[in-house]
Amino acid sequence: MQTEKYRGYTLWGHAILQxxxxxxxxxxxxxxPITRHTKVVNVSGVLGHFGTEEDAENAGIAWCRAWIQSDx
Length: 72
Fold this sequence. Notes:
This protein has one helix at residues 53-71; strands at residues 2-6, 9-18, 27-31, 33-36, 39-43, 48-50. The protein has 72 residues and is an alpha+beta fold. This is Transposase.
């Protein structure tokens, strides 16, 4: 999980390991919750499936930033 402070919000980049039939294939679902003063402001839902944990987390952070920018 990654966190980042941005314009008074805390952004969270989550990666959720997906269970696959083939154990050698790891895929991660990415999502991005946004909090402000410990309260949840918005949550992205699943943004897609990624080959690495870091890519999934980065997608969550990017979604959070875009949501904040579009809300201002």
